[in-house]
Amino acid sequence: MEKKITIIGIAGGTGSGKTTVVNKIVETLPPHYVTVVPLDSYYNDTSHMTDEERKAINFDHPDAFDWKLLHKQINDLRNGKAIEQPTYSYILSNRLPETIHVEPKPVIIIEGIMTLLDKKLRELMDLKIFVDTDPDERLIRNIQRDTIDRGRTVSMVVDRYLKVLKPMHEQFIEPTKRYADLIVPQGGENKRGIAILCKYIEGLMETWQPK
Fold it and tell me: Helix (H, G, I), strand (E, B), or coil: what is residue 29?
């Protein structure tokens, strides 16, 4: 039996626990089995912009992403072709010259805040998941992450949350729940929900094995 490549989309607000859910799926399955494609790697190339223009970009708006490149590369993986995945620096607010070589595997997970927003991308997916977490919890996680990893102060994170993240979440991310086949409340804390999800994916494995 020919193996089918299954594409899973995992969306949810920033700080919702998407990455934790993805990591737990990856840990459950054999190491050679899953390729994770982060939406964050597909921010637009801003090399032609000044530093000031880059800093003004709203990274929580759909226009910040290179959807065309993402469609092409997911299609390539689905057709069994390796890709050179772009890399992005939050510090520089720009795409880096280095790429990551990604081989196609039986399960491709696309993970990011707006993974379920784009219709063409959704049509490539076999399973669509939304990770749903309380807004207060997401804000706390954003403060913890951005102050450690992105060099921001607490007041900068809170200000950005109120002016950008919250309105963008309500306008573009929250509505994509309706496209999800499965909603995982409490993010990475929902061990039972993640276990059910992993069992489903493991079940797909068996259908790919020659009888």
Answer: coil
Measured distance CA(81)–CA(76) in Å, rounded: 5
Judged against a pLDDT cut of 80, whether residue 138 lies above it is answered with no
Percent of the chain topping pLDDT 70: 94
Decide: 65 and 173 in contact? Cβ < 8 Å: no
CB 102 within 8 A of CB 83: yes
> Where do the H-state alpha helices sit in the chain?
18-28, 51-55, 67-78, 119-122, 135-149, 154-160, 166-168, 191-208
46 vs 53: CA distance, rounded Å: 9
**Cα-flanking dihedrals φ and ψ of residue 81, to 5°?**
-105, 140
Read off the pLDDT of residues 154-211 as tens digits, 9 standing for 90 and up: 888 788 788 888 888 899 999 999 999 999 988 778 888 888 888 888 787 665 554 3
| CA-based nearest residue to 131, from 2, 25, 55 | 25
Give which of 202, 171, 196 is closest to 181, Cα–Cα: 196
**Residue 182 vs residues 64, 126, 143, 163, 185: alpha-carbon distances, Å:** 26, 12, 28, 29, 10
Residue 28 in this model has a pLDDT that exceeds 70: yes
State how far the Cα of 110 lies from the Cα of 40, in Å rounded to an integer.
10
Residue with tokens 């706390």: 140
